[in-house]
């Protein structure tokens, strides 16, 4: 009997879609490959950080306005 692990349920080193994908990937002889960090990943990460910081600033401004209006 074949032992199917969670790590064998993905074609990359990332999270598997489902543990049951292991047998399907083995039957297709799909090679596993590593995904690298490229410029696109860095750009998306920086964009996410900028959006998060902007959302925090907007939240602080809104809290300040709520305090100003209610007092």
Summary of the model, kept short:
The protein has 71 residues and is mainly α. It has helices at 21-28, 39-70.
Describe, in plain words, how this protein is organized in 3D:
With 71 residues, this protein is mainly α. The chain folds into 2 domains: 35 residues, no CATH class; 36 residues. Helix content is 56%, strand content 0%. The chain has 2 helices and no strands. The longest helix has 32 residues.
Structural key phrases:
71 residues, 2 domains, 0% strand
Question: Which helices and strands occur, and which strands form pairs?
Answer:
Elements: H1 21-28, H2 39-70
SSE class: mainly alpha
Total number of distinct structural domains: 2
Shape descriptor: elongated
Number of helices: 2
Radius of gyration, taken over Cα atoms and rounded to an integer in Å: 22 Å
Total E-strand runs: 0
Mean pLDDT: 79
**What portion of residues belong to β-strands?**
under 5%
Write the H/E string, N to C: HH
What's the end-to-end separation, in Å? 71 Å
């Amino acid at each position: 009997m074949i032992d199917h692990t969670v790590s064998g349920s993905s074609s990359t080193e990332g999270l598997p879609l489902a543990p049951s994908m292991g047998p399907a990937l083995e039957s297709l002889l799909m090679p596993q490959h590593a995904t690298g960090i490229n410029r696109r990943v860095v750009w998306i990460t920086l964009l996410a950080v900028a959006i998060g910081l902007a959302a925090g600033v907007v939240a602080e401004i809104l809290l300040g306005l709520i305090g100003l209006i209610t007092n």
